[in-house]
Amino acid sequence: KSVIVFGTIEILDDPDSIVDITTKLSHKFTQDEDYIRREIEGHAHRTLLLRLKIEHICGKLVSEF
Fold first, then answer.
1. How far apart are alpha carbons 31 and 37 in whole angstroms?
2. Distances (CA, A) of 7 to 37, 43, 46, 56, 62
3. Sign of the CA dihedral 12, 15, 17, 20?
4. What's the pTM?
């Protein structure tokens, strides 16, 4: 399958949003709350998050040999 997504990208620069999103994402990989808190406190200020606002998606099946 091939998928192409059209839309716009925006930079998320709200510190509260960065902490919230990175915390939720971290829980997919570990439940160690102390580790998550330390990493986010130490690195959230230099974390870049991008939001893709999808306007259109198209795709097709591709036969690869």
1. 11
2. 33, 28, 25, 7, 23
3. positive
4. 0.73
pLDDT tens-digit series, residues 13-65: 999 999 999 999 999 999 999 999 999 999 999 999 999 999 999 998 777 76
Rounded Cα distance, 50 and 65, in Å: 35
Identify which of 4, 7, 37, 5 has the alpha carbon closest to the alpha carbon of residue 23: 37
What are the distances in angstroms from CA 34 to CA 8, 40, 58, 61? 35, 10, 42, 44
User: How are beta strands 2-12 and 49-60 bridged, if at all?
Assistant: antiparallel
| Paired tokens of 29 | 């990989």
Phi, psi at 23, each rounded to 5°: -65, -45
